[in-house]
Amino acid sequence: MAVGEDTRALVVYGPGSDRYDFGLLHPLTPRRFGPGIGLLRAYGADRFLAPEPASDAELARLHEPAYVEVVRRISADPDGPPERGIGPGDDPAFAGMHEAAATVAGGSLAGMRAILTGEAVHAFHPGGGLHHALAGRASGFCVYNDVALAVALARDAGHRVLYVDMDVHHGDGVQALFWNDPAVLTCSLHETGETLFPGTGRVEERGGPGAEGRAVNVPLQPGTGDASWLAALETVVPALAEAFRPTMLVTQHGCDSHLLDPLAHLRLTTAAYRRAAAVVDEVAHRWCERRWLATGGGGYDVYRVVPRAWALVWLAQAHREPPLETPLEWRARWEDEAVRWHQAPMPEVFLDASDLAGPESPAITAANARIVERAVAGFRARPG
Ligand SMILES: [Zn+2]
Ligand SMILES: [Zn+2]
After folding, report:
1. What is the residue extent of each domain of the chain?
2. Could you give the percent of the chain with pLDDT greater than 70?
3. Which entry of 98, 132, 169, 258 is annotated as an active-site residue?
4. Which ligand has its closest atom nearest to the C-alpha of 1?
5. Cα–Cα distance between 192 and 225 in angstroms, integer?
C-alpha cells in the first residue's frame, strides 16, 4: 500500500441521492436510504462523497441527446404525455426527474473517477445500479444507466472492465450498451426471463460481432436458494475473470433476489450476499489491483433486507466481518416505520439463519447446474 493512501472504502451518498423518487407508492423508494445509510454509519462508515448531476456531455457517452432532451422536458412538465418509457407504469414522470437521475449517474461517475485517480481503491454507490436504462429509453425504474456510464468511463481510460450484475433482474441495459464492445465483459446472474421482467438474459445471448463471448448470462430458476445461486457465482465469476483478465471490476448488488423481496421469486438470504461480496472482492484484488466500484440496485424490502445487503457490500470493501447482531438503537429507530410499511420486524441477526429459506428442490438445483455448465462452455469456447 502506498504511503498516505486512503484505503477506507468510499461511499457515494448525499442529499441529492434522495431526490430520485417516483412517488409514495413506488417500490424503488428513497426511504431505503434512512435505514440503509444509518446501518453503514453504525458500523463506522465515515468516508462519504455527495453525488452531483452528470453533465449532458457525460450522459451523451451512452444516451441519445434527444432522449436526454425528452427527460428534461418531462422533468419540467411531468403532466405531459408519456414518452420513451416515461409515464404511467414502472417509470412515472416526476418534477425534477432529469436532475435526480443525472445525480445518480453523476454518483457512479464520481465513484469511478475516485478509483481511476487512485483516491480510492474500493467505492460503493448504494443509490446506483440503474441497469435497465437504455440509450434512448427509460425502463424498469431506471432513467439513466449510471452503472454503464461508470463502466464506459473506465473503458475510455483504457481498462478492460468486468461487470458482474447480481440483481434478480437481468442487466439488460448494460448488456445492450456494451453488446459490441470487446473491452467490456458483462455477466449477469438473474431469475430466468421466462418468469420475470425484462424477459431477456438467456444463455445464448453472448455478445455482438467482434465481441462474441463478452456477454455471459446465467438465468436461474424461480425458487433458487443460496446454495445453487452461490454455486453459479463461484463457478462462473472467478473463471470468467481468469479468462478475461479484467483491470477494473464493476458490480451491481441488487438485493431483490432475497426471499422476502416482493417483486421476484428467488429465495436467497443475506448469507449469500456476504459470500458474493467476498468473491468479487477477491477478483478485484487478484486481477484488478483492487479497483472495484460496487453499486446497489433493486431491493424492495427496504427495512428487513436492503440495509443489511448494503452493509455487507460495505463491510466486504472495508475487509471486515459482519457482526452477529444488528445494533439495537438502529432497530429501534426504524421499527415503527417498518411496521407502517408492513416490513417488520427489523432483523436482529445480521446473517439470516441458514434454514430461513428451507431446502431448494432437487429439480431446481439440477436445472441451475445445467445452465451454469452451458454458460461456462460458452465463454470457454471463446478465450482471449
Ligand atoms: Zn478489497
Ligand atoms: Zn431488480
Report:
1. 10-380
2. 97
3. 132
4. 1
5. 14
Q: How far is the CA of 317 from the centre of ligand 1 (A)?
A: 5
Give the range among 7-11, 58-62, 97-101, 306-310 with minimum mean pLDDT: 7-11
Can you read off the three cell numbers belonging to residue 176?
Answer: 445492450
CA nearest neighbour of 126 among 35, 217, 216, 229? 35
| Residue 319 CA to ligand 1 centre (angstroms) | 6
Instruction: Say whether pTM exceeds 0.90.
Output: yes
- The superfamily in CATH containing domain 10-380 is Histone deacetylase domain (3.40.800.20)
Average pLDDT of the chain is: 96
Cβ atoms within 10 A of the Cβ of 161, count?
Answer: 27
**Closest ligand to Cα 197:** 2
Which ligand has the minimum distance to the alpha carbon of residue 299? Answer: 2
* Predicted pLDDT of residue 381: 63
Angle, vertex CA 297, rays to CA 19 and CA 32, nearest 5: 50
Instruction: Band the pLDDT of 358: cuts 50, 70, 90.
Output: confident
Q: What is the DSSP string of 113-135?
A: HHHHTTS-SEEEETT---TT-BT
Q: How far is the CA of 212 from the centre of ligand 2 (A)?
A: 25
Residue 226: all three cell numbers together: 443460496
Q: Would residue 190 show up in a list of annotated catalytic residues for this protein?
A: no
Q: CB count, 10 Å around CB of 324? A: 9
Output the CA 318–ligand 1 centroid distance in Å. Answer: 7
Cα atoms in the 13 Å half-sphere on the side-chain side of 258: 29
The candidate with the shortest Cα–Cα distance to 302, out of 104, 100, 28, is: 28
Q: pLDDT class for 378, splitting at 50, 70, 90?
A: confident
Which residues fall inside 5 Å of ion ligand 1, going by CB? 281
CA of 167 to the centre of ligand 1 (A): 21
Let me know: does 368 contact 360? Beta carbons within 8 Å. no
